Amino acid sequence: MSKNNNLTQKIEEYEGAEKLLEQKIMEQDGLLEQKEKINNQKNELIKQMKEQQQKKDQVYFDQLKETRRYKEYILQLEKIAQKISDEDRKLREAYINQKQIKNKYNNKKLGVRKRMQKNFKRKRR
After folding, report:
1. What is the 3-state secondary structure (H, E, C) of 86-120?
2. pTM value?
């Protein structure tokens, strides 16, 4: 009987050890699941951070493009303004020249008129 008792005792010890081992395995499985969850959360956060950084970079590049576009637009406007001022200057010069020519013609005309009037007055006398 003592052998039976010893055997039963050893079987019980093995069963206890087996239960302890199963419990430890379950705990490890739980820890592994937690570790997997934490890794998944970490990967998700990394993915979100990358997406946010990409959005920031995209906004920055869009702003940079807009700035370049506006600079080009401003340069075009400056060129147009320069052309307009050149045309305006040319028109002013042409107007002044035309006025001078007209004044010369009128002065000559006046001179002729005065002479004609003087001659007419002389002839009348």
Report:
1. HHHHHHHHHHHHHHHHHHHHHHHHHHHHHHHHHHH
2. 0.42
